[in-house]
């Protein structure tokens, strides 16, 4: 149980393109979803926390107009990287939790984004 | 501030035992998680401790001492596939996960 699906796995696109990444909880309703970014050989960096039906809470230094997060339902959150540039190339990973209690975060497989 | 410390890298031999330590300082505490992350992949959940003591799961065990702000992950009978990064993360009073930078474990034959 507790499967999180993330799509797409790989994206290669030109600079200036907007890219949408989907994160779905397949067999549970996720009250909270998290978006992380990870550069090569570095730790996970939390970008934002997303609760269904409310605005995402962004971490310091993360541009909310650049990284648009929509959490329209208990099973789907999307991250849109708007007008992506080469410095946005990274590994983006979503995770979800069932409820706000001690509960492991269940991770999607991640999306490798390469901006040319 | 909130902080998680764990070694950057460790090396061990196949078949041996290795202990990865983690110390934490958080605003409140609701438990400690260990995750495994292979290169290029997302993390996978290994263990959760909220009470003091040792939790054993097959070849992997995790220990917690709340009074010392300390945890360790113990891996026995090491296999080559255990080569990965091991992430320690503490849950604070707001149920926010505070992540360590990860320990890269290299297994040698």
Helix/strand structural class of chain B: mainly beta
Q: Distance N terminus to C terminus of chain A? A: 37 Å
In sequence order, what are the helices and strands of chain B, one letter per element?
EEEEEEEEEEE
User: What is the count of helical runs of chain A?
Assistant: 0
Keywords:
heterodimer, A: 116 residues, mainly beta, four-stranded antiparallel beta sheet, 11 strands, 51% strand, B: 109 residues, six-stranded mixed beta sheet, five-stranded antiparallel beta sheet
Give the SSE layout.
The complex is a heterodimer of chains A (116) and B (109).
Chain A: E1 4-7, E2 10-13, E3 19-25, E4 32-38, E5 45-51, E6 57-58, E7 67-73, E8 76-81, E9 90-97, E10 106-107, E11 111-115
Parallel strand pairs in A: 2-11
Antiparallel strand pairs in A: 1-3, 3-8, 4-5, 4-9, 5-6, 7-8, 9-10, 9-11
Chain B: E1 3-5, E2 9-13, E3 18-25, E4 32-37, E5 44-49, E6 53-57, E7 60-65, E8 70-75, E9 84-91, E10 97-99, E11 103-108
Parallel strand pairs in B: 2-11
Antiparallel strand pairs in B: 1-3, 3-8, 4-5, 4-9, 6-7, 7-8, 9-10, 9-11
Protein described:
The complex is a heterodimer of chains A (116) and B (109). Chain A has 116 residues and is mainly beta. Chain A has strands at residues 4-7, 10-13, 19-25, 32-38, 45-51, 57-58, 67-73, 76-81, 90-97, 106-107, 111-115. In chain A, strands 2, 4, 5, 6, 9, 10 and 11 form a seven-stranded mixed β-sheet that branches. Chain A has a four-stranded antiparallel β-sheet with strand order 1-3-8-7, with no helix packed on it. Chain A starts with a strand and ends with a strand. The model of chain A has no long low-confidence stretch (mean pLDDT 90). With 109 residues, chain B is mainly β. Helix content of chain B is 0%, strand content 57%. Chain B is built from no helices and eleven strands. In chain B, the strands form two sheets. In chain B, strands 2, 4, 5, 9, 10 and 11 form a six-stranded mixed β-sheet that branches. Chain B has a five-stranded antiparallel β-sheet with strand order 1-3-8-7-6, with no helix packed on it. In chain B, strand 7 and strand 8 (70-75) form a beta hairpin. Chain B is globular and about 40 Å long. Chain A binds chain B through residues 6, 34, 42-44, 46, 49, 91, 93, 95, 100-102, 104-110, 112, and chain B through 30-31, 33, 40-45, 48, 50, 87, 91, 95-97, 99-102.
